[in-house]
Amino acid sequence: MAGSEAPPFWFRPRGWQSRLLAPASWAYGAVARYRMDRARPPEVMAPVLCIGNLTVGGSGKTPTAIAVGKAVIEAGYRAGFLTRGYGGSVTGPHRVDLDHDTALTVGDEPLLLARTAPTVVASRRAAGARHLIEMGVDFVIMDDGFQSRSVHYDYALIALDARRGIGNGAVIPAGPLRAPMIDQMRHADALLRIGDGEAGETVIRAAARAAKPIMRAGIVPRPLPALEGRPLLAFSGIGEPEKFFDTLRGMGHWLTMTRAYGDHHVFTEADAEDLLLHADLENLELVTTEKDAARLTYTEGRLGELRRRAHVLAVELAFESPVALQSLIEEVAERYHRRRIRRSGPPL
């Protein structure tokens, strides 16, 4: 939900709000189920791995895609990322240019993905995938696109934030699920549990009952030695800003003040003025996330000053078992090769 926060009741036990919205939720879920089941997505001539999630909001898809992309490159493939560029104006297909593009044109996540491998933003994912292949990419990684099924993927890996889970387990608008969980699980191939927490146990049990492989990973922050012992003003507009704040606290940093904004928040001059003013008055160091910093790229005035002064906490996603990740990549490639054989038919 660009520039806004998920309704708080989504992440509480179901109450009157969810019950009131249940009819609309049922209708939304029925349409989502129909579209997922009846989709006949076009195929492209390369392995396609979809990194998806079950809910609206942050779940770790982008760090997962980056970690997988690095492993794909290490395996000898020419990896490329495909994304819709949520929050950007470009419809594409458009290759992200780190020297010129901003979050307003391509979205914040593509700017992070493009640091690792060629990244194409496209509202029509099949056209975007073909554009990547024309660029020489031979292994496509989709950041999102699981529910829309607008291009055929050979494997769907579902990212689950174990701390955030799936909220109240209801479908939009009564809850954060993009479609009924049981229907989404039918189209998934594996589940990636990110971090620790009990909020994701319902999904983990459902995946186990469906005999889906369950992998584990964790978010590893890079140290910020320049901020040791300094009072901080931490600000963020991501899916769950509190997770960012808790990460800093867990690293031993002293958070004097925090500012939380809605996911994909577009920072304004007024925001920058407020943050810089409080930092100066309280002698605080500013710190934010990589996604937030990406939205401040190529800004001027007070926004530009905010970007220059803000320290950035970089994080990486690490799979608990690198062997499992390698096996996943091999499985995606094998499924693609079987798909090619089926398409070519028996020899004449």
TrEMBL record:
Keywords: ATP-binding, Kinase, Lipid A biosynthesis, Lipid biosynthesis, Lipid metabolism, Nucleotide-binding, Transferase. ATP binds at T55, V56, G57, G58, S59, G60, K61, T62. Its EC number is 2.7.1.130. The keyword DNA-binding does not apply. This is Tetraacyldisaccharide 4'-kinase. It holds the Pfam family LpxK. The gene is lpxK. Belongs to the LpxK family.
